[in-house]
Specification:
This protein is mainly alpha-helical. The chain has a single domain, classed as Sodium/glucose cotransporter (Up-down Bundle). Helix 1 packs across helix 8.
C-alpha cells in the first residue's frame, strides 16, 4: 500500500466526479441531457470521440499486442480513416436532416417503427455486454493497486461515474472526456520515458533488439481468413468495423449529433482519427519497450493484460505512479459515462417516448432519462462482475461489438443507399444477419476483424433480395 499514490487516485476520482456533477444546472430538456444542447466546440467533441474509442481495455490490452507480436494492429487503425470518409459522405448528411437524438431515428424515417426498435434493441444488448467487459478491465488495475479481486472497487467506479453522468448528462460526458483523455495520454507519455530510461542504451538498444525480431513490422500482406491482423483484414475489416461503430452505434453517433453543425461534426470526426493513430502508436511502442525491458519473457494472456499496469505501479516514482493509474481509471470512467448516456438515450428516445406518444412535459422525460441512467449503471456493473471468464479483455470487447455491428451497418446501408427495400425486407435482412453471425461466431475460425464485413454483407444482400420478393408478392395476381 502506497498512501501518497492512493491519495492521488482518490483525489482525482473525487475531483472529476465533482466537476461532472456541476453541469446539472444546464439540463432542462432531452436536447440538453443527450446532446449537450449542441453547444460543445468541435475539438472537445473530437477528444470525446477518442475517449469513447479508448477504454481501460485499450490501454492495458494494446501494449501486449506489440509485446507478443508487432505493430500490425496499426493496419486496423488505417481502416479507421477510410471509415471516416464513408461516414462523412453517407451518414452525416442524413443525421443532420432535421433534429435527431439517436441514430435509430433515421431507421424510422426510412423504414418504420419496427426497424427503429429492432436496431435500437441490438445496440442496447451489444453495448451493455461490450461495455461490461470494459468495466471489468478496471478490476485488473485495482487488483494491482489493492491486491484484491477488485469487485468492490468496480462498483465504486460505476457509482462515481453514474453520479456525474446522472447529474450532468452529455455536457458532463464531453467535458470530463476531455480531461480524462488528457490524463491517460499524459500517463502513457510519462510511462514511455520512464521505461525508456530503464533500458541500458536507450532507444538505440531497443531498435537493435526489436528490429531483427520483427517488432516494428506494420504490414502483413498474407491473405488469410483466420489471421486477425493482416493488411486485408486490418484495412478492410477496420473500415467496416469503424463505419459501423461510428456510423450506427449510438455511443459515437450521439457525439456527432452533439456538434453545432454537420461541418463541425465532420471536423471532429477526422481530427479524432489523427489523435487515435498517435495514441495507438504510443501504446504499441510501450509494448515493444516492455518486451526489451523484460528480455522477451513469455507470459500467458491474463499475465500480458497485467504487464503494463504492473510496470506503472511497481516502477514509476511515487506520485507519478498514482497519477498514471488514475489516468487508466480515467479512461474507464470516460467510456463508462458515454455508455450510460447513450444507453439511456436509446431507451428513452427510441422506446419510452414513442410509447407515451410524447404527451408528457420535458421535465418528465428528463427524470425518466436519469432513472434510465441508473438502471444501465446497474446492468453494466453486473456484466462486469461476470466478465472475468471471457478471455483477453481487448479482443473480448472488440469481438462482442463485432458480432452485431455488421448487422446494424447492413440495415443502415440498406436504408441510405437503396429506395426499394421496405420494412419487411429490412427485418428479413436483420434475421439473416443474426443467423450468419451466430454461425461465424460459434462454428468457424474466422477472426473478429472480418465479422462486420460478413454481417453487413449478409444483412444488406438479404434485405435487398427480399425487397424483390416482397414487391413480387404485392404485385402478383389478385383473386
Amino acid at each position: 500500500m502506497r498512501p501518497f499514490d492512493l491519495a492521488v487516485i482518490v483525489a482525482y476520482l473525487a475531483g472529476v466526479t465533482w466537476f461532472g456533477a456541476r453541469f446539472r444546472k444546464c439540463q432542462h430538456s432531452l436536447k440538453d441531457y443527450f446532446l449537450g444542447g449542441r453547444t460543445a466546440p468541435w475539438w472537445a467533441i473530437a477528444l470525446s470521440i477518442v475517449s469513447a474509442e479508448t477504454s481501460t481495455l485499450t490501454i492495458i490490452g494494446t501494449p501486449p499486442l506489440a509485446y507478443a507480436g508487432s505493430y500490425v494492429f496499426l493496419q486496423v487503425v488505417m481502416g479507421y480513416l477510410l471509415a471516416r470518409v464513408v461516414i462523412s459522405a453517407i451518414f452525416l448528411p442524413q443525421y443532420f436532416r432535421g433534429q435527431m437524438f439517436t441514430a435509430y431515428a433515421l431507421m424510422q424515417r426510412r423504414f418504420g417503427t419496427r426497424v427503429r426498435k429492432v436496431t435500437a434493441a441490438i445496440f442496447l444488448v451489444t453495448r451493455s455486454l461490450a461495455e461490461g467487459v470494459r468495466v471489468f478491465a478496471i478490476s485488473i488495475v485495482i487488483s494491482i493497486i489493492l491486491h484484491t479481486g477488485g469487485i468492490a472497487s468496480i462498483l465504486a467506479i460505476v457509482a462515481l461515474t453514474l453520479f456525474y453522468t446522472f447529474e450532468g448528462g452529455m455536457t458532463a460526458v464531453i467535458w470530463t472526456d476531455v480531461i480524462q483523455m488528457g490524463m491517460y495520454v499524459f500517463g502513457a507519455a510519462v510511462s514511455f520515458f520512464v521505461l525508456l530510461g530503464k533500458i541500458p542504451g536507450g532507444f538505440g538498444h531497443v531498435i537493435a533488439l526489436a528490429g531483427p525480431a520483427g517488432k516494428f513490422r506494420v504490414f502483413d500482406f498474407h491473405w488469410s481468413w483466420t489471421l486477425p491482423y493482416t493488411f486485408w483484414a486490418g484495412v478492410i475489416g477496420g473500415t467496416f468495423l469503424t463505419t459501423a461503430s461510428h456510423g450506427t452505434d449510438q455511443l459515437v453517433v450521439q457525439r456527432l449529433l452533439s456538434a453545432k453543425s454537420e461541418r463541425e461534426s465532420r471536423l471532429a470526426l477526422f481530427t479524432s482519427w489523427g489523435v487515435i493513430f498517435v495514441q495507438f502508436a504510443l501504446f504499441l511502442t510501450i509494448g515493444v519497450l516492455l518486451w526489451v525491458y523484460r528480455s522477451g519473457e513469455k507470459f500467458g494472456s491474463d499475465e500480458l493484460d497485467r504487464l503494463y499496469p504492473a510496470f506503472i505501479w511497481n516502477s514509476l516514482p511515487v506520485g507519478i505512479a498514482g497519477l498514471a493509474m488514475a489516468a487508466i481509471i480515467a479512461a474507464a470512467m470516460g467510456n463508462l459515462s458515454a455508455a450510460l448516456n447513450s444507453l439511456a438515450s436509446a431507451t428513452v428516445v427510441d422506446f419510452y417516448e414513442p410509447l407515451t406518444r410524447s404527451r408528457y412535459r420535458p421535465a418528465h422525460y428528463l427524470r425518466v432519462s436519469r432513472l434510465s441512467t441508473i438502471f444501465w449503471g446497474a446492468v453494466l456493473g453486473s456484466v462486469a462482475v461476470v466478465a472475468s471468464h471471457w478471455g483477453s479483455v481487448l479482443e473480448s470487447g472488440l469481438s462482442i461489438a463485432s458480432v452485431t455491428l455488421g448487422i446494424l451497418l447492413g440495415v443502415f446501408l440498406l436504408g441510405v443507399l437503396t429506395k426499394r427495400p421496405g420494412e419487411n425486407a429490412a427485418v428479413a435482412g436483420v434475421i439473416a444477419g443474426v443467423a450468419a453471425m451466430l454461425f461465424v461466431k460459434f462454428d468457424t475460425a474466422i477472426p473478429f476483424t472480418w465479422w462486420v464485413l460478413i454481417g453487413s454483407s449478409v444483412t444488406f444482400g438479404t434485405g435487398y433480395v427480399a425487397s424483390f420478393v416482397v414487391w413480387g408478392l404485392a404485385a402478383g395476381p389478385k383473386p
